[in-house]
Amino acid sequence: MTLVELMVAIAVGSLILMTVATAFGNSIRSFAVMGNYVSMDRDSRNALDRMTREIRRAGSLISFAPDRLVFTKYGVANFSLVYQWNGAAHQLTEWKTGNTKTNVLLTDCAEFAFAMQKSSGVVTTSVDEGKKIGVTWKCSRTMLGKEFTTEQMQQALIIVRN
């Protein structure tokens, strides 16, 4: 083999290896992105299911703010169910009177808001008129230590039964 042939073979082999390495890197990144989406979707579903179940079991809505809901419970004196959005920590928490543990329902959320509607669907801020609770959030995560962000926007409307 001559020197020219050897150099051509090394160049072609290097191009092939670089192409395979690039495809492998993209596959790993895609796999990590899909894992983030699945994880965020699972966390969002669990948080929404829990909030829906607890809000429908709760009594009256006694306090409303875009970042906080407070409910009472029928037949239980001095009971509160509180959902609080902490923008600094990017977390949605649930707290119940008599329970020392605060449940973190959502993490890594850049945006979150509660909204309240009358039974007709008109937006209201009066807790006496509120029959529907709108919940909107946007979660994102950084993956592989880089600024590749995966985002997921969620919206839900919870009908207050009581």
Q: Describe it for me?
A:
By secondary structure, the protein is an alpha+beta fold. 34% of the residues lie in helices and 36% in strands. The protein is built from 1 helix and 8 strands; from the N terminus they run αββββββββ. It has one helix at residues 3-57, and strands spanning 61-65, 68-71, 81-86, 91-96, 103-106, 109-117, 132-143, 148-159. Strands 1-2-3-4-5 form a 5-stranded antiparallel β-sheet, covered by helices on one side. The protein has a 3-stranded antiparallel β-sheet with strand order 6-7-8, covered by helices on one side. A hairpin with a 2-residue loop joins strand 1 (61-65) and strand 2.
Question: What is the first-to-last residue Cα distance?
Answer: 86 Å
The low-confidence parts are none
Give me the Rg, rounded.
25 Å
Q: Using the alpha-carbon principal axes, give the shape.
A: elongated
